[in-house]
Amino acid sequence: TINMLNNDKILVETNIMNREEVIKIFSKRHSVRQFEDKKVNEEDLSAILEAGHLAPRGMNRHAQHFYCFRKGEEKRAKLDSFLFSKLNRDPFYNADVIVLVFVDSTSVAPVEDGSACIENMLLAASLLDLGGCWIHCPSTIFNDEKNKPFLKEIDIKDDMHASDGIALGYKVER
User: Fold this and answer.
1) What is the overall mean pLDDT for the chain?
2) I need a surface site. Which of 64, 104, 124, 166 has the fewest CB within 10 A?
3) What is the mean pLDDT of residues 139-146?
4) CB-based contacts of 16: which residues, under 8 Å, 6+ apart?
5) CA distance 91 to 95
């Protein structure tokens, strides 16, 4: 038996899942771009981050780094302001949590490593009934040398490869 996540809400054991249940997990995930003004609890956020750490990586190097920014925090306000100055919009759709994924520049496959982590986190968010959206702009913005100095303002080392990001929160029900 393999427990994918150590969280009471989503305990998936390989010996009890059939093909249809596995497909249902994947089909449940979709991009969410409208979020409720409600805080994601720490237990769920921890489970989502753990799912990211369980992702496969090139040569099994653990080179991924996740940086979380919550609404109302000073670093989040700096990040929001910086991104708005570059894009003239909020690329994270006012989600409660932003997760930026960075990978050590020495990784053999930084794009693939970061992408696998993001996919695992989005699947975990969906299983926890949270909304999530893969946001591509962090890689284009933070891999540009002229934007790297900003990373120090939000306590991210500037010598890593920016993968992408995730918007996380409770989805607005339609």
Assistant:
1) 87
2) 104
3) 95
4) none
5) 10
Residue type at position 30: H
pTM summary value: 0.86
Cα–Cα distance, 127 to 33 (Å, whole number): 17
CB atoms near residue 96 (< 10 Å): 23
Rounded Cα–Cα distance for residues 150 and 22 (Å): 41
Report d(CA 22, CA 164) in Å as an integer. 26
β partners of residue 159: none
Using one digit for the tens of pLDDT, what is the confidence trace for 76-95?
999 999 999 999 999 999 99
- Amino acid 15: pLDDT: 55
Chain-centroid distance of CA 91 in Å reads 14
Query: In this predicted structure, what is the pLDDT of residue 31?
Result: 81
What is the share, in percent, of the chain residues with pLDDT greater than 90?
Answer: 64
Taking Cα atoms as reference points, which of 114, 116, 101 lies closest to residue 68?
101
